[in-house]
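Hey team,

Filing this mostly as a record. A colleague (T.K.) asked me to run one chain through the structure pipeline before their review meeting, and I want the input and output archived in the tracker in case anyone asks later how it was produced. No errors, nothing strange. Just documentation.

Input sequence:
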Amino acid sequence: MAAMDDEQAEAIATEWGVDPELLKEAEWKLETIDGNDGELYGYFVRFREDTDPDLLAQLGVSPGEYYRQVGINVFDEPEPEQDNPFPDNRLEIANAYPEEWGNILADFARGDPIESATGAAFSGSAFDGDAFAAADASVLTADSGEVLTDDDGNRLVVGTDDTTRDFQRDLLLRLDRLEVALQTYRDHVPPRNHNGPPELVEADPIPPKDLELVVKVVVDLRTEAQQEQPDPVKLEVQASTFRRVAGAILSWIGRKADKAVDSAITSSVPIGVAWVIADPKSLHDALVSVADAASALAAHLQNLL
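Output structure:
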């Protein structure tokens, strides 16, 4: 286990609903999800790729993944309970509430002034529920197109604030950059000479199946980011895919660096002209950038719920 104290491990295990001893059997580290604004949006626990799959399954990690998200409030201390001078949770204020113009509000059923412990209706015309809808909001509708309402007949609306749109625009911009990096990579992947000895055929930074998956997820993520109300769960799943592939690229680059050191080549990493042009490092950075933006948007949407 990384340099984490037992209290944090206990908190993580409690949130996940697993035995804390399972975390002690695995090697892991806690990482943060940071937004572009410098704010913390959450945590996730990253496990080593050689961790026993059965152990990962017991820890609730999805198949093929090596991390699991942790809630932003997992390490918060519970607030101490405060003494309530009013056991029945009612505030008794002797003075009646005055209206803005100095008149006394009255309970018209009994003619008594309204006190905080007295339920009553304010005088005046009935309020239109739609008048309280956000100026920039979407009306919720059923699949049939029928407008959904609450028990009182008020339309159900979901607002989309400027901050949400900022997150969406940022994510779409990063997706544009990722598509450029993907195109550069795909155009310059070195050809395979299958007539050569198998041991001389080196693996690509991204396996072909993963490359196809990334291309598909780019399309799916762009579609989701353009929705009026993106699904934060889908955003996190797609971000997870990008992080996994980015991790594979980083491991490939690390192996190249190790070979350079083993060969006593310190001036540069001999990855070949074709790989330099394909630029897997830029693709790694673009994948991480999009994943971070998707997670930031997901965290923002979760906070709005």
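Quick notes for T.K.: The two ends are 34 Å apart (CA to CA). Helices lie at 6-16, 20-25, 53-58, 162-188, 208-225, 232-262, 273-278, 280-304.
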